[in-house]
Amino acid sequence: MKLSLDPYMFRSTPLRELPALVAELGYQWMELSPRDDFLPFFNHPRVGDEGVAALRRELGATGVGVSSVLPLYKWSGPDEDERQAAVRYWKRAIRITAALGVDVMNSEFNGRPEQAARSEAQFWRSMEELLPVFEAEGVRLVLEPHPDDFEEDGKAAVDLIRGINHPLVSFLYCAPHTFHMGNDAPGIISHAGDLLTNIHVADSFDHTGSSGLRYIVNPPGSTVRVHQHLDIGQGEVDFDELFASLAAAGFDGTITTCVFAWEERARESSTFMRDRITELLTKQGMRL
Fold first, then answer.
1. How far is 95 from 103, CA to CA, in rounded Å?
2. CA pseudo-torsion sign 141, 144, 149, 152
3. What is the pLDDT of residues 120-178, one digit of tens each?
4. If we measure between CA atoms, which residue out of 159, 164, 169 comes closest to residue 192?
5. Rounded to an integer, what distance in angstroms lies between the CA atom of residue 263 and that of residue 240?
6. Which of 123, 140, 164, 225 shows a CA-CA span of 20 to 30 A to 57?
7. Is 272 helix (H, G, I), strand (E, B) or coil?
8. CA–CA distance, 152 with 169 (Å, rounded to integer)
9. Is the dihedral of CA 188, 272, 147, 220 positive or negative?
10. What's the pLDDT tens digit per position in 52-76?
11. How many other C-beta atoms lie within 10 A of the C-beta of residue 158?
C-alpha cells in the first residue's frame, strides 16, 4: 500500500522542487495533479521532454515516487471539437506519464449531467481512441465520479467501469465526494471489489443535511454542486466506517491525501493528514 500526497496547495513551488518538498513533509509518494507548468486544467500539457527528464532526475535523487498523474480534460464533453482536443491532450499526457516511469493515471468522467446520454456517448468515443495508447505505453487508468460529471453516483460509476471491461481500467473512491456518490462507502467499496485501486482522502460536509438547507444558494433551484476538501475531522465523512470498509475489502492500493482548503497552512495540513491516515490504517490492522 502507498500513502501519497497531492501537492496542489504547493503549486507555486517550481516543478523540479516538488520531490524534495514532498520528502520533507514525510511522504514517499506524490500524485501529480493539474498545475500550469505541467498539465494545466483542460489545456494541452506545458512540460517538454527536458522538463520531464529533469523531474525524473529529482525524483531519483530524493527517493520520492509519483504514484499517479491526474489530468483533467473535457473528453466527455458534448461539444465534439472540445472532445477531439481533449483526446489530443490525453495522448501527450499519457506519453509524459510513461516517460516519468509512472504507470497510473487518475481522472474523472467529466461531461455534463444535464446531457448525460450525449456525454456518455462522447466518453465511449474517447475511450476507443485512447485505450490503445494506454496499452502501448503500459499505463493504467483509474476513474472517479465527480460532482457535476455525467455520472456522479458511486455504484453506477463502478458499473460503468465494469462495462469498459479492460484490465487497465479501475475505480477510485474519493472520500470528499461521499455525499454526492450516495453516502454509502461500505456498499460502494463492496460493489467495486477488485476494481477499487485508489482512494482520495479529505473531509467534506453533507450538503443534503438539514433537509437540503445546509447550503442555501440563489436563485432557488440552482444545480450548483457543493463540496469541500478539508482536513479529516473538519467535516462529516465517517472515516472509521471508510477505513473499516477498506480493511474488510482487503484494500492494498494507493491512498492519496487531497486537501485543498488550507493553502495558508499547507504544511501543517499535509503532515496532519499523513499522521491521521496512518492512525486510521493502524486501527484497522492495515499497514503501509
1. 10
2. positive
3. 999 999 999 999 999 999 999 999 999 999 999 999 999 999 999 999 999 999 999 99
4. 159
5. 26
6. 140
7. helix
8. 18
9. positive
10. 999 999 999 999 999 999 999 999 9
11. 24
Hey, what's the cell of 97? 506519464
DSSP state of 166: -
Determine how many CB atoms are found less than 10 A away from the CB of residue 210. Answer: 10
Helix axes 185-192, 239-248, angle to 10 degrees: 20
Q: Which residue has the cell 486537501?
A: 259
CA dihedral 27→23→228→89, nearest 10 degrees, is -100
User: Cβ neighbours of residue 116 under 8 Å, at least 6 residues apart?
Assistant: 150, 151
Which sign does the torsion angle of CA 104, 110, 113, 118 carry?
negative
- Give the number of other Cβ atoms within 10 Å of residue 106's Cβ: 27
Record the cell numbers describing residue 281, joined without a space. 490504517
Q: Return the C-alpha cell found at 67.
A: 504514484
Dihedral class, residue 148 (left if φ above 0, else alpha if ψ from -120 to 50, else beta): left
Q: What percent of the chain has pLDDT over 70?
A: 100
Task: Specify the pairing of strand 29-32 against strand 65-69.
Answer: parallel
Of 215, 226, 167, the closest CA to residue 194 belongs to 167
Distances (CA, A) of 146 to 121, 152, 174, 182: 18, 6, 8, 12
Tell whether pTM > 0.70: yes
How large is the angle between the packed helices 116-137 and 80-99, nearest 10 degrees? 30
Closest CA to 162 of 132, 190, 194: 194
Q: Fill in the amino acid letter for 100.
A: L
Q: Determine the straight-line distance between the first and last CA of the chain, rounded to whole angstroms.
A: 5
